[in-house]
Write a structure and sequence with these properties.
It is built from 4 helices and no strands. With 118 residues, it is mainly α. The longest helix is centred in the last third of the chain and has 33 residues. The two termini are 32 Å apart.
Length: 118
């Protein structure tokens, strides 16, 4: 975020922050529901969270990275833009890994009914 501010491309950082903050709502609902006995509601919110996560972080974010690579925007140095896009692409890979972990947690819940993460 600081680098986006320093290179005066804060609009990109604002959109990326917004994409990450949207799923924060369901994240905190899930954290709250794990401490209760309403496991069906927890499962429904978790499935909604997974759908929102998949859309914002695995569909929209890669599209934005592609748009950043194709637009002609001055980053001040020819090295900054490829490095910036590379780092964002690494973030997408992490999001994909975490989504696989979500799928594993949901399948464990469906098979055993356990909501504890291992």
């Amino acid at each position: 975020m600081g680098g986006q501010y320093l290179f005066n491309v804060w609009e990109i950082g604002a959109v990326i922050s917004y994409l990450h903050d949207v799923t924060g709502i369901t994240t905190y609902i899930i954290k709250t529901l794990t401490e209760t006995n309403v496991k069906l509601t927890l499962a429904l919110v978790f499935v909604a969270h997974m759908a929102l996560w998949f859309y914002t972080r695995l569909m929209v974010l890669p599209m934005l990275i592609y748009q950043i690579t194709t637009i002609s925007m001055d980053f001040g140095s020819p090295i900054v833009k490829p490095f910036f896009c590379y780092m964002l692409s690494c973030l997408v890979v992490l999001h994909a890994y975490w989504f696989i972990m979500f799928v594993n947690m949901l399948s464990k819940y469906v098979k055993t009914g356990a909501t504890e993460d291992v």
